[in-house]
Amino acid sequence: MVTAATTSAPLIEKHTIGYVPPEDRHGKTRDLFTLWFGGNIAPLPIVTGALGVQMFHLNLVWGIVAILVGHLVGGVLMALHSAQGPQMGIPQMIQSRAQFGSLGALLVVLIAGIMYIGFFASNIVLAGKSLHGVVDSVPVPVGIVIGALGSGIIGIIGYRFIHVLNRIGTWVLGAGIVLGFGYIFTHVQTADFLTRGSFNISGWLATVSLAALWQIAFAPYVSDYSRYLPANVPVAATFWTTYLGTVLGSSLSFIFGAVAVLATPVGMDTMDAVKLATGSIGPLMLVLFLLSVISHNALNLYGAVLSLITLIQTFAYRWIPTAKSRAILSLIILAACCFAAVGASANFIGHFVDMVLVLLVVLVPWTAINLIDFYAIHKGKYDINSIFKVDGGIYGRYNPQALLAYAIGIVVQIPFMNTPLYVGPISEHINGADLSWLVGLLITSPLYYWLANRDTAYKRRLATGKLANSI
Fold this sequence. Notes:
Subcellular location: Membrane
Oligomer: single chain
CATH superfamily of one domain: Hydantoin permease
Membrane topology: Multi-pass membrane protein
Largest sheet: none
Order of helices and strands: HHHHHHHHHHHHHHHHHHHHH
Distance between the termini: 23 Å
Organism: Pseudomonas fluorescens
Keywords: Membrane, Transmembrane, Transmembrane helix, Transport
Helix content: 55-70%
InterPro entries: Pur-cyt_permease, Pur-cyt_permease_Fcy2/21/22
CATH topology of one domain: Hydantoin permease
């Protein structure tokens, strides 16, 4: 669908967390495919995908099956969040006020912000290593700063530029990873490429969980990149273009990491294995991955900034954040992450993965509540004005039903957890497989639906017709 805004939309984004009015809507649903496909052809998913054979000791076939199952399942939740964007026209985190209340949503917003700052810091470390791999004379710390500045420029320019870069990246990175697969399969350097590792239920479940959680980790900001689409785009179109893009892109990257590790001697660092396994085209692959991580990391910076603005605006409700505010906060986060990443330990990426697994324990119940509220309770109809009021308007400062379901959703996951901080008894009994995310979803979803339907105040609001997308 082409609108007047499609061709006149400014390159530098002027909105932050505010509602995007119809006259500023632009783009097409196919842009979501290129965004999430191109954005997932990157070093971090490659490193994460390799864990299935490195850490969990699966062979190639069972590793691929686990990766596909995890992404196919987790991608459903991620794409359902994406489909909220055009209907709401606001970022995902501030929309959470409609479920949790203006103050009740703060914990989830804070956790999401921390997680995406962690993603940003991890990716600039990978950017620094990739740049050093391409040009030996560039030290890793210098590469980290260069990678952070590149992502910062893209994030500050904002929404439209991010989409443009990923449209280009889809073709370039898609061709690059296919070329990489072709080279590796024709130049395997190990005799045990197909036989290294074996099926084990705990490793298989852990790899499924890792892939599913990769998708769920996008949930707090995925609709930020669909909120500028015209409000009348079909929900199904938004869902499927997002789903196909994210599942295909991330699955290819995860599998590429597993293949590269199996094609090289045991014990190599994943990105070193990629460089060795791709031989003569290795430098080209590293250049492509460097450009990818810089481009994709802009999403993490952008999401972290929107989360921070949401936190500040909750208390400084008269503040109207502008593009300048977004730029200043971007630079502050960028500088802090560079400082942390340059002084980080050699196992920074491993520590980051551990952190994400811990944080997702508290994000999974939020995902369940948000989706049930949007699709089953409110059916996409919200009072946008109330979301931006300091007292939460008709949603209040706290929603007891959501907070109770959220707390229970966290507690029921504890026996099934396997994190660096705690290993639950059930997880320990099944050789360390972490099924907490699945239990959290299965318990929280019906519980919140039942609690919300017992909320007489909500029923009165619905009966009087106050629930409608309005601004």
